[in-house]
Amino acid sequence: MADRARRGLRLHHLLLLLPLLVLWVPFYDRAEPALAGIPFFYWYQLAWIPLTVVLVLIVFRLDRRLGTGP
Amino acid sequence: MTGPLDPTAIGVFVALFALVTVLGFIAARWKRGDLGKLHEWGLGGRRFGTVVSWFLLGGDLYTAYTFVAVPALVFGAGATGFFAVPYCIVIWPILYMVFPRLWSVCHKRGYVTAADFVRGRFGSRTLALAVALTGVTATMPYIALQLVGIEVVIAGLGLHLSANLAGIAIPLPLVIAFAVLAAYDYTSGLRAPAMIAIVKDTLIYFTVLAVIIVVPAQLGGYGHIFASVADAKLLLPAATAGSLGAPSAYATLALGSALALFLYPHSITGILSSSGREVIKRNAILMPAYAVALGLIALMGYMAIAAGVKAMPAYADGFKAFGPNFAVPALLLQSFPAWMVGVAFAAIAIGALVPAAIMSISCANLFTRNIYKEFIRPDCTELQESRVAKTTSLIVKAGGLIFIVALPQTYAIVLQLLGGIWIIQTLPAVMLGLYTRSLHPWGLLLGLAAGVGTGTAMAGALAFKSATYVLHFGSLAVPCYAAVAALAVNLIVTVVASVALNAFTRHHADETLAEEYV
Known about the structure:
- The complex is a heterodimer.
- Chain A is mostly helical.
- The two termini of chain A are 15 Å apart.
- In chain A, 27% of the residues are buried.
- The longest helix of chain B is centred in the C-terminal third of the chain and has 39 residues.
- Chain B has a two-stranded antiparallel sheet. A two-stranded antiparallel sheet of chain B has the order 3-4.
- Chain B has one domain: Sodium/glucose cotransporter.
């Protein structure tokens, strides 16, 4: 159970708080800059989907390497 | 007559429906296990790997009602309906961080429901009962709403066969669909929706892909689609000096929905059926594919506006019967050839069957474990336990059907709105319980009661029409999703009561060990 003993939270888990930024609505509640006719409000929020995937993936990889995690 | 009664569309629809029926029964033999045991019938033997779990959780969480109601909200109300996207985004880090712990402790202790875990962690069967009852009550109207998804597409196909029973029109296609679902669920348990989810999600992705390729081309591109939406709908009204306004309602709605999602019994059933904690972590990375699909589906609300389906006489009856919920079926009928309409409608209808199946199985698990075995027959055998669960799943489905056929649809919608407010109140016991045993069971119970009471009162003050309650801090108005405000009350009561109770009573009934969570 040596690897289990090392489980736990580390600084890199803070990365998982970043997606909460998508709840800061006043920042993106506007039409410009539009992307290919899509107002900012829509493409900005959609862009957070791949960003969140990357963040969780980074944490997943780091957890695996360091033996840390939930 | 709302739809065109096209033989091709109906043929494709019925053929796909027949396919999943066959799969539903074959599933009993898949990853073969003894279906006379509750964890085999109700959790698929905890044997689903990353790929099957991906389909199962996706089929479970992104329901037909979501696929109909989210674009309907965008169609009717505009930007507000897009809250589904930030809601999905907040979910995945929570899934990654919190729920592998739940899987581990449930796996090691043989827990089948969240209430089983609460029972073991806090040693209180009363608290476990409260968690179980909250889960069942919140899920029942959700099952009923899945039927709305089926109803809408059946109307879209123009199939209006109904029998008259004591003055109530019984829609036959709906009853047949549900009877078939009940039969293969009874036989195969969670294996049935798991297998069908693979077909359902394939059809959904195919449909979404077809929509984003075909429809914008027909309507002159995304720029044109957005340009045809009224400016007032495209963005949220900004905050003013005295009120945080719509942005505050939007953000709390997304946050509250995300926190509530994995507390629903059907989500927990999906999580516990996976074969390992790594499966859950990998799915936290892979599941956002569904969020992309949902975002694009939400935009179908605007495509329906741009296509002008609302004003077309062909769809007038549909809109009259279903309101904005008819926007997506109308758009599909307008944009696609008949065979593709059949595929898309089958995707929505099968998309209702999968979550309805998982929801009724999870209610059955809760009833069997936390009410029947706990309070009625503590000495029941494993076989009796699984039989009770199977029967309960039938009763739950019949209840949902009666609900939607006999009562106005608004009842189910109001109760589902309340269900979201109620289920989030189990967060302290279930999610915080994964990290600490120091909360007192009676404190948790008081908090749960306070949260449910506050949330229900807030929704009542809004005449059960909305869940956005305006809080006042001095001269500042803060519109807030009632579930989030009520959860804050719940947390304060839970913590204060626990501190007080722990000072006077000793409570160390935790049967779980720290190493069982990792």
